[in-house]
Amino acid sequence: MMVTGAVRDLAERYTAAWCNRNASSVAGFYSPEGSLSINRGAPAVGRAAIAAAAQEFMTDFPDLAVFMEALEAQADRIVYRWRLTGTNTGPSGTGRRVGIRGFEQWRIGPDGLIAESRGQFDRADFQRQLGHGASGEAG
Q1: Alpha-carbon distances, residue 41 vs 21, 55, 111 (angstroms)
Q2: Could you give the CA distance from residue 129 to residue 106 in angstroms, rounded to a whole number?
Q3: pTM, rounded to two decimals
Q4: Where are the beta strands (DSSP E) in the chain?
Q5: Is the Cβ–Cβ distance between 76 and 1 less than 8 Å?
Q6: How distant is the alpha carbon of residue 105 from its chain centre?
Q7: pLDDT digits over 30-49, tens only?
Q8: Collapsing DSSP states into helix, strand and coil, what is residue 111?
Q9: What is the dihedral of CA 69, 48, 126, 118, to 10 degrees?
Q10: pLDDT for 138 beyond 50
Q11: How many Å separate Cα 1 from the centre of its chain?
Q12: Maximum pairwise Cα distance, the chain
C-alpha cells in the first residue's frame, strides 16, 4: 500500500477530528464495521464503539491535542505516527499533563476509510506521567 494523497488527506482530517474533540467525527473515519484496538486490547468494533472509546479519552483529557508526526507504508498497512498532549483533568483526573507518542497501523477498506486500526503506545510511561506529569514538569 502506498501513502497516497487521499490517505494523507484522511490522516490530516482524522487528526483534526481528534483535536476538535468530536468523538463521533473521529468514528466517521472508520468503515461502518471498522475496528480500533489499543495495545493489543479488545477491539472497539463499529462506529458507536469507536466513538465511545474516543470519547473516554476526550473526557479524561479535555485539552487533548493530537499531532500527526508521520505516515508510512508498510506492506498492506499505513502506519500513522502521532503525538498526544493533554492534562488529565476529567472526572477522577490526576491533574497531570501527559505527552506520549504512539502509532496506529491502519488497514484501509475498499470505501477508503479505516477498516482496522491497531494502536500502540507506551502504557507504562503513560501511567508514570499520570502520576508524576510529563518529563520536565514540576510536581
Answers
A1: 23, 17, 25
A2: 27
A3: 0.91
A4: 30-38, 44-45, 65-74, 77-87, 97-108, 114-121
A5: yes
A6: 11
A7: 999 999 999 999 999 999 99
A8: coil
A9: -60
A10: no
A11: 21
A12: 48
